[in-house]
Amino acid sequence: MNFDLNGPKVIGLKQTVKAITDGSAKKVYLAEDADAPIKEEITDLCERRGVPLELVQSKGSLGKACGIECSASVTALL
Q1: Would you kindly state where each structural domain of the chain is located, as residue ranges?
Q2: pTM of the model
Q3: Which distant-in-sequence residues (6+ apart) come within 8 Å of 22 by Cβ?
């Protein structure tokens, strides 16, 4: 993993969408194997709001980087 998820963050679609919308998201990480509707929603929202978006290899690696024991499709650094 070549990304750093230390510091305040939110994990999951609803919380990430809220963070992007309210302007608190500084960067968003999206798993390449996330469901297509999630990828489309997050990609479009980040583009509209000017939030940097980085794709990561898998939901499993994103979850592990977040320090949780399950997979994660999307997370946002605050």
Answers
A1: 9-77
A2: 0.94
A3: none
